[in-house]
Every structure is written in structure tokens, then in C-alpha cells.
Design goal:
- The protein contains ten helices and 15 strands.
- By secondary structure, it is an alpha/beta fold.
- It folds into two domains: 186 residues, Alpha/Beta hydrolase fold, catalytic domain (Rossmann fold), CATH 3.40.50.1820; 99 residues, Rna Polymerase Sigma Factor, Chain: A, CATH 1.10.1740.
- Helix 3 runs antiparallel to helix 7.
- Pathway: Amino-acid biosynthesis; L-methionine biosynthesis via de novo pathway; O-succinyl-L-homoserine from L-homoserine: step 1/1.
- Transfers a succinyl group from succinyl-CoA to L-homoserine, forming succinyl-L-homoserine.
- GO terms for molecular function: homoserine O-acetyltransferase activity; homoserine O-succinyltransferase activity.
Length: 369
């Protein structure tokens, strides 16, 4: 969907003549009361469920939506009941206007000149999309990780437009350690000789080395120690034994991380990575209230479901409990589930029966269509 009007941003900059890519699943009911907005995390997109078909009608390889375990007919977020909307955020590289597109004011590719965006800016853009679709009130807004931050922000920016918020594996802000991880990843990108100050498009190159390292750093933080030990342990890549090399790949975990980094560098935009990690850093609704999260959440009127995972050390259960406490301080209806799962932060993407059961139960018993 194209938007001609100017969108003011929290930085004081603005953007105009931008596009938002989105997908919908299910049917919008007559009074438009059954809409569920899904907010995506760092490297995801608007393609949250289902698969794409090629011209012959065959399923395209690896085209499954990133939350297909959660959303669809008969699934926890049942598209037989709900009209689900997935939106690709501004600044992303999967269809919505971002650094790879042309700036209408200069007729040149944005590159590093794309304005810095925040979680609040994304929510404002999503609200405009809903306006264009004629949807005034959401049955629910839902997201995991950075998507959960957007869901939380929806309840503060547009409290009258959200009946329920489902916040999974998220936090009210990033800890210093999390900001540090993001900064190391950004430095890997900006110090890549092919980065060219963010204008690498003009030079016909991509900063793949920096992107590979950024992805490797991020991927380590998404997994738990238990999962890495169970999957890889100290297995060597070469059955012949140790090579006694400081540069060759020796262990299976090294090979896995390099594979993940190589794959990521082929499809993700470096400037988008910088923008999205910075949006993560900036998010802090309590910041305007002297760090008092209870005061910040006093303006929310939605009902909440929060879910966390015991081995998620990047967005630990303690961070979800901070939100739960702040909501209870305001006597806001909140349900909370802490799932004992071994998968680390990535657990929010996986088909854990207890996790899926919690979400299914909440939507069946509390979220009216």
C-alpha cells in the first residue's frame, strides 16, 4: 500500500511517499472487529504464515511464513475466526520502503540517508495502514521479541484501538548487555571496507563480511547453552581430528555459525540491520516517566497475555515479569506464562505444545472475534 502523506518520525525527521508491504489471512467480519495485527522481529517480514506457490501451483521451497506454527486455520491464532494482518516495517528490506529504495526528494537510493526509525514510528505507520483498511479497533496485537515491544507500544500509543496485547519473549527495554551485543554487530558492519559509509549500493558491492559477523553474534544470543551443547557439543568438523589451525573451521558449531552468517548476508540489507538494532536500543516507554514502568503503563487499557521462556537469557523471564508487575500495579488484566523450554530466545518461533496451548487457550477464552 502506498502512502503519499508525510509521516513525522520521533527523531524530528519525516518520510513521505512510502510503501508498506503486508499480507492478510482469513476474512474480515462485517463489523471489522476480528482483526489481529502481527508485529515482526528483527529479520522477519510481513509473511507470517502459509506458503507461496510458483507458477505451476507447486509450493516454493522454504517459503513457509515465519510464524506458521502459530497462525492459520485451526491453529492457536485461528484464521477461521480472525483476520490476521502481517506488516513489514519501514526501513526493512522485504518490500516496505527502506534504505534500498529511492528517496523521492533526491531521486537517489536512500542508503545511509534513510531516517532513523523507532518502535513508535512503526506503530504509527501500522495505524495508518489499519485506517486505510477501515479497521478502527484490533481484537489483538501480537508479537515476539522486537515484535512484542511493538505490541506493548500499541497499547500506549493507541490504547483505545487495542482490546488485547500478546507480548512474547520481550522486554520493556534493552539491558546494557543487549545494547552492547547490538553495538558489536553494528561495528562489524560499519568497519567492513565494502560498507562505504552506508552508500555501498553506489559502489556495486555489499558489506557481506560485516553482515556475516553480525549474524553470528546475534545467532549465539538467540540460542541457549543447552541447545548448542546438545546439537553440537565439542564435535569436530573433520573426522580425522584436530588440524591445529587458528584459521580453519575446527568445530561443528563454528561451521554452523559460518553457514548462518553466509546465508544471512545473501538476503539481508546492512543499513536495515543498523536501523532495526538501533530501534531496539531506543525503545524505553518508561524513559518518559523517570524510569517508572508502572506510570508508563498506566495509560494502557488492553488486556494482556505475556509469555517468556526459562532459557531465554537475552529477553529473560525477569523482563516479562517487570511488565506483569507494572500492569498489576495499575490493576490491568494480565495473564502470564513462563514456559520451561530449552531453546533460548528462539523458543518463541518453535512449536512447543505448552506454549501453543497457552496462546490457543487465551484466544479461545478471552479474545472475542
Amino acid at each position: 500500500m502506498h502512502f503519499a502523506d508525510v509521516l513525522p518520525l520521533r527523531s524530528g525527521a519525516s518520510i513521505r511517499a512510502y510503501d508498506l508491504s503486508y499480507e492478510t489471512y482469513g476474512q474480515l467480519n462485517a463489523d471489522k472487529s476480528n482483526a489481529v495485527l502481527i508485529c515482526h522481529a528483527l529479520n522477519a517480514s510481513h509473511h507470517v504464515a502459509g506458503v507461496y506457490l510458483d507458477e505451476s501451483g507447486q509450493i516454493q521451497k522454504k517459503s513457509e511464513g515465519w510464524w506458521d506454527t502459530m497462525i492459520g486455520p485451526g491453529k492457536p491464532v485461528d484464521t477461521n475466526r480472525f483476520f490476521v494482518i502481517g506488516v513489514n516495517n519501514l526501513g526493512s528490506c522485504f518490500g516496505s520502503t527502506g534504505p534500498m529504495q529511492t528517496n523521492p526528494d533526491t531521486n537517489e537510493v536512500y542508503g545511509a540517508d534513510f531516517p532513523v526509525v523507532t518502535v513508535q514510528d512503526w506503530v504509527d505507520a501500522q495505524a495508518r495502514l489499519l485506517d486505510a483498511l477501515g479497521i478502527q479497533t484490533l481484537a489483538a496485537v501480537m508479537g515476539g521479541s522486537l515484535g512484542g515491544m511493538q505490541a506493548l507500544s500499541w497499547t500506549l500509543q493507541y490504547p483505545g484501538r487495542v482490546r488485547h496485547a500478546v507480548v512474547v519473549a520481550s522486554a520493556p527495554n534493552l539491558t546494557a548487555e543487549n545494547i552492547a551485543f547490538n553495538e558489536v554487530a553494528r561495528r562489524a558492519i560499519v568497519t567492513d571496507p565494502d560498507f562505504h559509509g552506508g552508500h555501498f549500493y553506489k559502489h556495486g558491492v555489499l558489506p557481506k563480511r560485516g553482515l556475516r559477523i553480525a549474524r553470528m553474534i546475534g545467532h549465539i544470543t538467540y540460542l541457549s547453552d543447552d541447545v548448542m551443547n546438545e546439537k553440537f557439543g565439542r564435535q569436530l568438523r573433520d573426522a580425522a581430528g584436530i588440524k591445529f589451525s587458528t584459521q580453519d573451521v575446527e568445530f561443528q558449531i563454528e561451521s554452523y555459525l559460518r553457514y548462518q552468517g553466509d546465508k544471512f548476508a545473501e538476503y539481508f540489507d546492512a543499513n536495515t540491520y543498523l536501523l532495526i538494532t538501533r530501534a531496539l536500543d531506543y525503545f524505553d516507554p518508561a524513559g518518559e516517566f523517570g524510569g517508572d514502568l508502572s506510570r508508563a503503563l498506566a495509560q494502557a487499557s488492553a488486556k494482556f497475555l505475556l509469555v517468556s521462556f526459562t532459557t531465554d537469557w537475552r529477553f529473560s523471564p525477569a523482563r516479562s515479569r517487570e511488565i506483569v508487575k507494572a500492569l498489576l500495579d495499575n490493576q490491568i488484566d494480565v495473564s502470564y506464562a513462563e514456559i520451561d523450554a530449552p531453546h533460548g530466545h528462539d523458543a518463541f518461533l518453535l512449536d512447543d505444545a505448552r506454549y501453543m496451548g497457552v496462546v490457543r487457550s487465551y484466544f479461545e477464552s478471552k479474545v472475542s472475534a
